[in-house]
Amino acid sequence: TTGTGGYEKLEIREVPTPQIKPGEVLVKVLAAAINNTDINTRLGWYASEVGESTEQLSVNIGSINHDMQKASGWNSETQFPLIQGADCCGVVIKAANKDTQTLVGKRVLIRPCTAIKNQYGDNSSVWMGSDFNGSFANFLSISASEAFQISSNLTNEELASIPCTFGTAENMLTRARVTDKHHLLITGGSGGVGRALIQLAKVRGAKVTAISSGEKCHLVKAFGCEEVFDRTAPDSIFLERIKKAENSFDIILDTVGGILFPKIFSTIRSGGQYISSGAIGGPVVNLDLRQLYLKDITAIGCTSWMRNTFQKIIKLIETSQIVPTIHKSFRLTDIVQAQKMFVEQKPFGKIILMPTE
Prior knowledge:
This protein is α/β, with parallel strands linked by helices. Helix content is about 25%, strand content about 25%. The protein has helices at about 35-45, 55-60, 155-160, 165-175, 190-205, 215-220, 235-245, 260-265, 290-295, 310-320, 335-345; strands at about 25-35, 85-95, 105-110, 115, 125, 140-145, 145-150, 185, 205-210, 225-230, 250-255, 270-275, 300, 325-330, 350-355. The two termini are about 20 Å apart. The model has no long low-confidence stretch (mean pLDDT about 95).
């Protein structure tokens, strides 16, 4: 990715194979998956000047006048050119240190989010594919501590679909301390994180209501939801269902934001929680602060993963408690076509990129 902008910013290049440093391993990428962050970083959506949804910005990218590159990344200015890609299933082909030689030849999943301590001593995060080169390549170099050997019958494509979405979902549920006593409302139920949230919430025994759209509603319900609200239904139906749900949910897990935020927020009960890890429907929302403070609601933003989050995901994969959903696989060289499908069709299931030999 050569800078912020449209699909013209994606280039296929021959680049040198990464040279590993002490403590690192060289991984041959077997499969990678597309996520919203790949689109958002390319568009410059993380810049504070942007108020549109990911879809709106993708359509209107040519009319943006400000220099979004200055604040286009998760943490600061993105350094282009950048090899994106946060999800990776691969095989270790070289290790720099003697004590990590046992990883050579092993299939691994890469932890995309590395937690670090910021200047205040709190967790911050560095993300593969946004803060440093990622998996949209034939090879990548990574700290050996971020490469997790995996024992599973799942395919390379299925494994590659898991890290970013399920790691984010597990982190949200852990931060919210979800148990079998909670009733959750999950927005964006048909999206990658939404599907993961539903599955991992059901592992915990929680009761789940989700929001989805149209024909995807029955697919979402099949993951174990008690109820699914169809946001494409006429306002008289959808908003009435939301109205009836006021003060009903213990926790809202939101990846959407957008125009419906005030209505959705009103469904949290007194003493409940609002957990956010995204805002693809629009990052700038209206919040009646009385809904927050008079009801003693706790709001939590979730980007940095807790340190043991990914280990939990590995265990759930190896005990067959995660069911990945794949929509379609593309060759890595067809990345533009793949991203267009991701943005324009919003398919139910992950889109995978397969490196060319």
